[in-house]
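writing this on my phone so excuse typos. first protein, seq and then structure
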Amino acid sequence: MMLYASLSAEELVRLCAEKGNDEAWEEFVRRFHSVIGSTVTRVARRCGETSESVIDDLIQETYLKVCADQKRLLRDFQPQHPESFQNLLRVTAANAARDYYRALRSSKRGSGHRQEDVAEVENFVCDSHATGSKQIETEILIRQIDEWLAASSSPTADRDRRIFWLYYQRGLTAEAIAAISIFGLTVKGVESILHRLKKAVRLALVNGHGGTPTEGYPEKLNIKRPSEGIKRSAAFLEGEGQS
């Protein structure tokens, strides 16, 4: 019988990334719940939150982020030091809470804008509730964007591609990505990469031929006869102008 409590964080994460291992998940919650809970509570209190139910919801939202995209956060985890996974959870939990309060403030102001267009981008790269033909279209579009990013001849293409999906699929902020030491970037450096790739993908989606590619990236994103649904989902890109 496996003693899950004796496993390293890396071993436990690997087991949790697999399907159907309830005992591993029980140990995961026992070991890491306090890390998630304390991080969410700290951010919430700084934002003036007094409702325990809201804090509980944000803790559950963090678990959803951990399990999103078929547990990609767990599958992609690469330890750098003994506290690597705890630090990743802190970043994920803090990001979940901050996104909630940013959206809440934005709603109260009535501006309709979220920081760095996270909500709008999620409409076409991360619709986890899509079903049927819409889900298929979304998956095809994500795959084509990913293949296009991977086809770059830029020496930093792999790093840039990871940053792109950390931001647009996992919902990490530029600040959270910059805090990941393996990238060695400042917040401005992350924002510059996101701006460059977003502009290139926007042109590819709108024109279907890549427009003017950024240096090191292929000229064409091969979207074959995209449906009107995909075109509408990407409409926000066309409206952003050429900044």
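second protein below, same order as before
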Amino acid sequence: MEPVTNAETVVAAGTGERIERILCPVDFSEASVKAYRHAHSIASHYGAKLIVQYVIELSEHFSACYAPTAPLFEETRETFTANGLRDLHQFVDIPGCNPPECIAQSAMTAPDAILSLAQERAISLIVLGTHGRRGFDRAMLGSVTERVLRHATCPVLAVRDAAPDSAAQGPADAPVLVRRILCCVDFSAHSRRALKYALSAADAYDAEVTVLHVLDNIPDSADVGKETATAMEDFGSLFPATAPRSPKTHLEVRLGKAYQEILKSAAEMQSDLIVTGVRGRNSLDIAVFGSTTYRVIQLGAAPVLTVPIWLPRMV
């Protein structure tokens, strides 16, 4: 896998948020292969440590859950873990990718194991695959990806598997290229933090960034021209006055339903990455998550990086 910049490049502290430890949970699916390649690419560009995790959910194995004795349960769990670690080493043995640290675990639920390891290892970024489905399927609100997105204390990159007829479908061993980044903002604090990650990724990959604000729920009586002009002025609040905006950073205002306009913009610019902020676990309810971030992840082709506002400041 050939990064756009030198594989040893580390993003300087002054250019944006640092990514030092990446966790990539996998389940050996095609989505996991794609997520692993993205995680490996990011680790190469940031000089970050990559940890790949495989969780064997004991709740799905009758023989483990109903072992007659504690020693037999422990023996069964150790067998699952050993087999999982063997399979994990085979999974990460991909030409062109340096082997990461591999961790196989037996646990009752995958999300809890992922979140626990992320906290234990002070993970900077979680990268995981998600299976795309058309439409807003409420049944997916119990998925591993959704639970990790809701409760992780670090940014999460959700990498969708491409549909068979998708233009995004490509060779499994194709290098990960990030040339165009779409950063969605609403001028709140979480938008500013998301923009820092977008600009950091742009630095790492020498990519262009389009900063998008969508005028959503605008009344029919509103002066759209005035609202647009105000939004263009508000973009200035997102950028430090001491740091001039890069010529590779573009500003855009659209009118319409937020998730629809985000998807349209991403498709038109052939975005390789979408970055958005979320307010945190207390206000990230089904209505907010489902109507915007969740739908962008489910319906879009590009990976989506969600950045929670309540992150501790990284040093």
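The two ends are 29 Å apart (CA to CA). thats all i got for now
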